[in-house]
Design a protein that fits this description.
By secondary structure, the protein is an alpha/beta fold. The chain is 35% helix and 11% strand. Helix 5 packs parallel to helix 6 and helix 6 runs parallel beside helix 8.
């Protein structure tokens, strides 16, 4: 009872604190329960965005003209790879994550841009699709890697709340995402990631007493994974079959996850390996495989480290000695 009382007091204080800092904050009443919109701690309400100016890659601002005509915020401009998805994406820079690995692999070749949203399903993704990927942007991404489905595949809650999205609706949302991304430019490439499996026992142990009616099973993951793969084959989008890739490891249940769902460093290595396989095998012009892309400012220089002969220099631009894995 003491713990519950302290939690209630903390929740009350938290609500007042949010109201004080963010007067636009709202509470959403569903199923006779109020929940604070916690995202407002990190961003203002949508209505307030219009009054702010953000510099785009084209040198203009979202709320007005840029200070320099055609100037880049940071140059030279590199190809942009956007990671778009739920927590598997948001956490991809944590615990030796696959986003961080890709940033290292593509250092001085492409900028990896993170657009990950913890807890999101495909229904929420399509609601913001045009904001995350505006068609009139000055520059468009060269590659978008998309992951949604893990939260969609969770069993429905009896209240009607929660992230579950019925399979037919999930397919149509992913179809809409694919169509929008393919329409951005003739050179914007798209890769979807299918649902990986989960460690059901670890999930149940980790959420007991926290979540209500949480249903996350490998059978549901399999169904949504297969649906994603079939859709990609239909609409001509490259896909990484994470459901199959993870289970090639005998120890995948314990090696690939931190909590039964989110990826450990070992799980992330599988994701990177499979993405690089797709990029190497894709017949895209220009190629987006890291070994085929130019290295920024990669010319030889007399300022490079001096070689053993004392007369020449060694260009370190493409050295990869530091990597635990020498990626193909």
């Amino acid at each position: 009872m003491q713990i519950f009382k302290k939690f209630s007091q903390l929740s009350s204080f938290y609500s007042e604190y949010v109201s004080f800092l963010y007067p636009h904050a709202t509470t959403v009443k569903k199923a006779d329960k109020c929940t604070i919109n916690h995202s407002l701690l990190h961003s203002h309400s949508v209505s307030s965005h219009a009054s702010h100016k953000f510099v785009s890659s084209g040198g203009k601002t979202a709320g007005g003209e840029g200070d320099g005509a055609g100037a880049e915020m940071v140059g030279p401009q590199r190809p942009q790879f956007v990671l778009f998805g739920s927590s598997i994406v948001q956490l991809s820079y944590a615990n030796g994550g696959w986003g961080a690995i890709l940033s290292d692999v593509y250092a001085r070749k492409a900028d990896i841009v993170l657009r990950g949203y913890y807890g999101w399903n495909s229904r929420r993704a399509v609601e913001v699709l045009h904001q995350v990927f505006p068609k009139d942007a000055a520059t468009q991404p060269s590659l978008v890697i998309v992951y949604f489905g893990g939260n969609d595949s969770m069993g429905p809650h009896s209240s009607g709340l929660g992230p579950h999205v019925p399979l037919p609706e999930y397919i149509e949302h992913m179809r809409s995402i694919a169509a929008h991304l393919q329409s951005l430019s003739d050179t914007t490439r798209v890769i979807f990631l299918s649902c990986p499996p989960v460690n059901e026992a670890k999930v149940r142990a980790g959420v007991s007493g926290i979540f209500s009616e949480l249903v996350r099973t490998n059978e549901l993951c399999r169904q949504y994974s297969e649906a994603c793969i079939e859709l990609c084959q239909e609409v001509g989008v490259k896909v990484v079959d994470l459901w199959t890739a993870f289970q090639k490891r005998d120890d995948w249940l314990n090696a690939c996850f931190t909590d039964g769902v989110h990826l450990s460093a070992e799980g992330s290595k599988i994701v990177v390996e499979e993405i690089l396989k797709v990029l190497k095998g894709a017949e895209w012009e220009p190629s987006l495989h890291w070994k085929s892309m130019l290295t920024e400012f990669g010319d030889d220089s007399p300022y490079d480290l001096v070689a053993f002969d004392g007369k020449t220099t060694l260009n370190p631009s493409d050295w990869t000695f530091h990597r635990e894995i020498q990626w193909d």
